[in-house]
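Extended Data, panel c. Modelled sequence:
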Amino acid sequence: MLQPRKLKYRKAFKGRSLNRKITTKGHLLAYGEMGLKALETKMVDSREIEAVINELKRRLGKRGRYWLRIFPHKPKTKKPPEVRMGGGKGDVETYVALVRPGTIMFEVSGLPKETLKEILRGVQHKLSVKTKIVSEE
């Protein structure tokens, strides 16, 4: 599971809503020929990112290459089931990456464009975020 090496504080605040804010950083392809761009605001779980990485490794083989452009820095807490209200904040359940519309999440290269497009189409189903495939053209 992806998680930060060190955190100053174990639990984080909820934070403000990122709705209606389009990203200004990380919205262009930087490394690969094609990528997945987020179309909505969501918290992407580290397990989802891990599933995408495994799928990319499996499908790209040795010739293809991928880049991860998001990382789960934010801790997400949850209380156990059937616990009464109060008693403080719950334990850290997982880590999430906050994704805004326009963020490039993954990039790939090293194979023909049609093959890369098929691979990214297969990867889209692993994510809870609506995405579109973008190319460097």
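The helical segments are 46-60, 113-124. This feature is highlighted in the accompanying rendering.
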